[in-house]
Amino acid sequence: MRLLILLGAPGSGKGTQAKLLAERLGLVHLSTGDFLREEVRRGTQLGNQANQYMNTGELVPDVLILDMIKTRLVSDGMNRGFIFDGFPRTVAQAEGLGRLVDEVGAGIDRVINLAVDDEVIVGRLTARSTCGVCGAIYNDVSNSPRRAGFCDKDDAALVRRSDDSEAVVRNRLNVYHQLTKPLEEYYSRKGLFLKVDGHGTTDQVLTRVLTSLAASGTNDRAQV
Ligand code: AMP
After folding, report:
1. Do 5 and 110 meet the contact criterion of CB atoms below 8 Å apart?
2. Considering 19, 110, 124, 172, which one is annotated as catalytic?
3. Which DSSP state fits 157?
4. CA of 221 to the centre of ligand 1 (A)
5. Where are the domains of the chain?
6. Of 11, 85, 128, 190, which sits most exposed with the smallest number of CB within 10 A?
């Protein structure tokens, strides 16, 4: 089973790149943020618990996230492999993931970090909108839809995420620097970490990621 992780601050382009990479490489795209938003929308117990953290840009407790991942790993295409987007976000989550992949006899192939400057991120997120139906991501500045407010793919209305206001974005960035950034060193020590420049167009970043993966020889899988 192939397993890739996309690391990076909120707004670094993880969601966009993960969707493209999943298509290219035949992997299941697993976004903890998308799952949580779906739970909130459905009003489940997990959604109600998660909502208070998400609204302010704090992280949902590790134990809830790891339970959710465990269920998904078992139910979603174990044999196809995964690309994780937005998970793990803490060292405790990375350790939990390490135990889970050990249990199923798998390993993590590579951890790709999309590096983008904080001020570029604030600009990107406060201009971001998402298709309410297919999840396609747009940006008023760098990737606007052909018809303002509507998705190019299915013409559905675009929506803004409630946690993309500037105040919440700045808190999400603080949380990222404090709790998620240590994962760069965690995975570097395991020889899995690849840093990719996340500035530029979607195509430019995708090309950099694919080039970096090819150069690193993902067949040479390291175990966690
Ligand atoms: P995202 O769509 O990845 O930006 O996630 C949106 C929000 O969901 C985050 O600000 C967190 O509140 C929550 N979230 C998503 N993934 C995780 C995770 N792995 N651990 C904790 N909280 C998460």
Report:
1. yes
2. 172
3. B
4. 27
5. 3-116+165-216
6. 190
